[in-house]
Amino acid sequence: MRDDSGEASASGVSRVFSLLRLLGESGPGGIRLTEIAARAALPRPSAHRLLRALAAEGAVAFDPRSKRYTLGLGLFVLAARAGDRLGLRELARPVLLRLTASLGETLFLLVHNGYDAVCIDRSAGPLPIRSFTGDIGGRVPLGVGQGSTAILAFLPEEEQDEIIRYNLPRLQATGGIDEATLRAALAKVRRDGYCGGWSGLIPGMAGLGVPILNAQGRSVAALTIGTTTDRLTPERRDVIAEMLRHEAAQIGRRLNPFDPSLRRAGAAMGVTDDAPRC
Predict the structure, then answer these.
(1) 209 and 159 share a domain?
(2) Cβ(155)–Cβ(218) under 8 Å?
(3) Is 272 among the domain residues?
(4) Which one has a higher pLDDT value, 74 or 226?
(5) Coil, strand, or helix at residue 69?
């Protein structure tokens, strides 16, 4: 009697990876069950059963509001372990400490998350500094502060437009900035390669931020300093900007594309106007 269990198992593995490839090709917005089943040439109940099993393992995520499936965080964590074990925070930590020691300034590491930038690391200098993101875990709308503005400036145009539409009321609530002023500022950041100066939103405080770009030239994070207005002279600003650009480029070349912290939250994945801000 012929044992077909091995052949059946191989077929099952093939179907699983076929579904994962479909989800990977569908982009951050995800894909509905009906389309998955059609493209995978599977009966709808079979596709649903496989997707539920993958979701239980964390390899697939399901959004009940949009009824769409995407690749799950568990899959990204697993892939990260197969590549460079150093995540963004581990790569940047020595840079933050080195720059704080050499410049005497407070350094922040921000990561892009949906419509916001989130501080995932900080190295405090000797001066008391107030910032938009505050401490580790602080969140700020993209377009507020030098680091988050640097991230916004180097996003693809379509995504940038979507973020501006969503965030403009939030930005106006913090400082009254209008769309023309914001877009002019973003154009300047793209020309200069950094965002720096005194925003006027926190009296006496100044900052400078540069984007960290992935292999596709898309901003995923930012290095930024927080300092006082009297310390950020034009001459010193240019030197600091060059130092940050150099360090950001080094980090960007070593980024692990499967690092979970670099997963961009989708436009409709729970980012709300009452998200915590610091």
Answers:
(1) yes
(2) yes
(3) no
(4) 226
(5) strand
Contact residues for 186 (Cβ-Cβ < 8 A; gap 6+)? 149, 152, 153, 160
33-55 average pLDDT score: 91
The residue range of the domain holding 112 is: 83-262
CB of 102 closer than 8 Å to CB of 80: no
CATH code where residue 241 lies: 3.30.450.40
**Chain centroid offset of residue 19 CA:** 25
Is the domain of 47 the same as that of 92? no
> Distance between CA atoms of 99 and 244, rounded to whole angstroms?
9
Distance from C-alpha of 108 to C-alpha of 118, rounded to nearest angstrom: 10
Whether residues 166 and 220 fall in one domain? yes
Q: Does residue 114 sit in the same domain as residue 241? A: yes
Among 199, 101, 216, smallest CA distance to 146 is for 199
The pLDDT value recorded for residue 23 is 87
Q: Which two tokens stand for residue 234?
A: 């034009």
Average pLDDT, the chain: 82
Model pTM score? 0.66
How far apart are alpha carbons 223 and 149 in whole angstroms?
11
Q: Please determine, for residue 199, whether its predicted confidence score (pLDDT) is greater than 90.
A: no
Statement to judge: residues 158 and 56 lie in one domain: no
Q: Let me know whether 22 and 146 are in one domain.
A: no
DSSP one-letter code for 209? E
What is the spatial distance between Cα 155 and Cα 149, in angstroms, rounded to a whole number? Answer: 10
Max Cα separation, the chain?
Answer: 85
